[in-house]
Design goal:
single chain
Length: about 120
C-alpha cells in the first residue's frame, strides 16, 4: 500500500511540475537566463492572493466548501512565488560571483603568457 501511495505521489509531482503554470515559471527562473526574472515574478503572487480572498468571500457567502481547495491552491502558489523571488536573487548573486571568479582565474592563468609573447 505504501508503495502505491509513493508511486501515485511521484506521478502527481511529475504532472504538476510539467503542466502547472507557477511550476513552469519557477523552473524557468532557476536557469541562468531566468535568474533576473525571479523578483518581477513575485508580483504574480498578488493576483493569486486576490483570487484566494475572493474565493474565501464566496465561501463565507454560502458557496460550496469545496472551494476551500481552490483557495488553498491559490495561496500555496502565491507563497511559492513570494519565496522564489529572494531565492533567485541569491542564485543570481552566486552565479555572478562564480563568473567573476572564473574571469579572474582565466586572466591570471593567461596574463603572464600573453605579456611574455609580446
Amino acid at each position: 500500500m505504501f508503495r502505491l501511495i509513493w508511486i501515485v505521489g511521484i506521478y502527481i509531482r511529475g504532472f504538476m511540475r510539467r503542466f502547472m503554470p507557477t511550476n513552469i515559471a519557477i523552473d524557468a527562473t532557476r536557469i541562468r537566463r531566468g535568474h533576473k526574472w525571479g523578483a518581477p515574478l513575485m508580483l504574480l503572487a498578488i493576483p493569486y492572493i486576490y483570487v484566494g480572498s475572493i474565493v474565501t468571500t464566496l465561501i463565507d457567502g454560502g458557496a460550496s466548501k469545496w472551494l476551500y481547495l481552490v483557495a488553498l491552491v491559490c495561496i500555496w502558489n502565491a507563497l511559492k512565488l513570494i519565496i522564489n523571488g529572494p531565492v533567485t536573487l541569491a542564485l543570481l548573486a552566486r552565479t555572478r560571483m562564480e563568473e567573476r571568479r572564473a574571469v579572474r582565474y582565466s586572466q591570471r592563468a593567461t596574463g603572464p603568457l600573453v605579456e611574455a609573447m609580446h
